[in-house]
Amino acid sequence: MSTSILYIIVLSLLFLSFLKDRSKTKKALKKALKSIQKNLSMMITVMMFMGVILTVIDPQFISMIFGKESGIYGVLLGLGIGSVSFMPSFIAFPLGANLLESGAGYPQVAGFISSLMGVGFISFGMESKYFGTKVALMRNLLALLASIVFAAAVGGLL
Amino acid sequence: MIGFVSKHKWAFIALLSLMMLYMFEPSKGIQATQSTLSNFKSVGMILPPIFVLIGLLDTWVPREVMVKFMGNRSGFVGGMIAVLLGAMGAGPLYVAFPIAAILIKKGARLAYVFLFLSAWVSVKLPIFMYEWASFGGRFTLLHVISSLMIYSIGSFMMERFLSLETKTMIEDRAETLSA
């Protein structure tokens, strides 16, 4: 759904650009092609690692870990697993909802979901290529902190 | 050949780990390959429009405009734009890196670029309703509010911690990676 909206927006912009200035549009497309080339190897790497990690840490494994009385350890585990694994939200959300149904607590799932989206252990290499190791490290730690705060807030308020 | 391998060494390591998994546990190897391929498919769909958008941004938006709206003196407006841009983002975090690079190249303030990345991973409009449906309204609102708070403060702190050299290094990299 959101992908088709993205296509509609970008295609209309491209069309507008083409109407206004053909040579500029050509330049823009050339740049697009060039940056795809520059990023492709890094992105393919991340996707392959993702495939491997998602297989080792699969949904069944995760459900096993978030037992009913996992408590604070469950939260920590959730944060840890969320940080090293990486999955698109259309897989992560139903998984989280399933975990809740099968008896996991809200704080555990909150820490898991938030670190899953924000802390990118697998894409760390690519991130440091863009911003340097220091910034990549800081941003990931910040995301981990935000996940801890969110898990704590859910634990206290829900 | 050696240059090619060393340039893409992580890709080869990833490929190697995929093959190792296949050798030791074929069924898991097949599963991992399938999941990698399905990643290719879903992310491959988002990449062309995102990169065309980057290309259009690069050719049509002059540096002065970016500086005005997201530069050092853009104030609250700059922060809002960063959050909105991030919230509209579709796709995993690593898709946002090239976009962040073009923002930096055009003169956006670093704190706002960090804020953009943070919004990308926490406040996602395209899947907001989906999160609401999966976890309920209170969970989703808590997620958005607590993330925005921590990330706003954190983005400015990150910028403060960086030395001038690091900032210049980031700008140089953004320049070469999105040239």
Describe the structure in your own words.
The complex is a heterodimer of chains A (158) and B (179). With 158 residues, chain A is an all-alpha fold. In chain A, 85% of the residues lie in helices and 0% in strands. In chain A, helix 1 runs antiparallel to helix 2 (22-56) and helix 5 runs antiparallel to helix 6. Chain A is elongated, with a radius of gyration of 20 Å. The two termini of chain A are 31 Å apart. With 179 residues, chain B is an all-alpha fold. Chain B folds into 2 domains: 1-43, no CATH class; 61-177, no CATH class. In chain B, 85% of the residues lie in helices and 0% in strands. Chain B contains 10 helices and no strands. Chain B has helices at residues 2-7, 9-24, 26-60, 63-70, 75-88, 93-105, 110-122, 128-135, 137-161, 164-177. The mean pLDDT of chain B is 90. The interface between A and B is large, with 81 and 80 residues.
Radius of gyration of CA atoms of chain A, rounded to a whole number: 20 Å
The number of distinct structural domains of chain A comes to 2
Radius of gyration of chain B: 19 Å
Q: Report the count of strand segments of chain B.
A: 0
Which regions of chain A are unreliable across 5 or more consecutive residues at pLDDT < 50? none
**Strand share of the residues of chain B?**
under 5%
Which residue ranges of chain B are poorly predicted, with pLDDT under 50 across at least 5 consecutive positions?
none
> Can you tell me the overall shape of chain B?
globular
The number of strands of chain A is: 0
Average of pLDDT of chain A: 87
Largest sheet of chain A: none
How far apart the termini of chain B lie comes to: 25 Å
Outline the biggest β-sheet of chain B. Answer: none
Shape of chain A: elongated
Helix vs. strand class of chain B: mainly alpha
